[in-house]
Design brief:
Number of helices: 9
Structural class: mainly alpha
Oligomer: single chain
Shape: elongated
Largest sheet: none
Order of helices and strands: HHHHHHHHH
Number of strands: 0
Distance between the termini: 40 Å
Helix content: 55-70%
Length: 135
Amino acid sequence: MKAQKTMMEAGFSQDDITNMNSCSVKHIYHRLRGTFEKVSWRKVVCHNGECPIWNFVLTMIAHGRLYTKDRLQRWGVSVDQDCILCNSEKETIQHLFFEFPHANILWSKLLEWKGIDRSVQGWDEELKWAEKWAK
């Protein structure tokens, strides 16, 4: 019964389920997930044979699950809030990936290389911009 509910959520009708000769988890997953347009930069992140860890870190960042010191403190863990790299700001995703001087320089150079004339922004703003740019 639970599987039937999931199948219905994926868009299969009762007749589809009854008349199915075979079924794959992959097919159901893709139906549940829906379709997304491919963005031009996806191979750099998702199919990068040199640095597969990028995929993992990007996923952790996107879901707000990267273990930064500010996140650990919200869990009640007593930690020094200072960034271990610069000791001048609190360690947050925003700081590590956008405000930290080396990260900011890297982003600035990437934007310049792509011919984009604007300043480096935060995670949410960069995602909005990337989606708009990909269209």
